């Protein structure tokens, strides 16, 4: 006999499967749609700026919460133009760890 906690709830399984399908469709649908729609210069500029805007929206609340995080964000801003983004992000993470340990 299987305990109740180990039995599969089909409605939850269907919700999880539906969520995965919707996520996959948006991931595939965006690039598919972009290849079929001609964008103007303003829309192209907005789409090119979106990744940076999303990154700032994720980082800014943390950077404003602690002085160590603000210093780390400033460090990333200084090095991001000179090194690849992956290196800048890794440097930022290392700087957060170091400054939180020191401060």
TrEMBL record:
Keywords: Membrane, Transmembrane, Transmembrane helix. It comes from the Bacteria. The chain crosses the membrane at residues 12-34, 46-64, 70-99. The keyword Membrane applies. The keyword Transmembrane applies. This is Membrane protein. It comes from Azospirillum picis. The lineage of its organism: Bacteria, Pseudomonadati, Pseudomonadota, Alphaproteobacteria, Rhodospirillales.
């Amino acid at each position: 006999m299987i305990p109740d906690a180990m039995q599969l709830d089909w409605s939850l399984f269907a919700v999880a499967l539906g969520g995965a399908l919707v996520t996959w469709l948006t991931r595939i649908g965006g690039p598919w749609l972009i290849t079929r729609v001609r964008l103007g210069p303003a829309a192209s500029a907005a789409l090119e700026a979106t990744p940076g805007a999303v990154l700032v929206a994720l980082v800014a609340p943390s950077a404003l919460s602690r002085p160590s995080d603000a210093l780390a964000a400033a460090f990333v801003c200084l090095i991001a133009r000179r090194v690849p983004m992956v290196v800048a992000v890794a440097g930022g993470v290392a700087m957060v760890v170091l400054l939180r340990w020191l401060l």
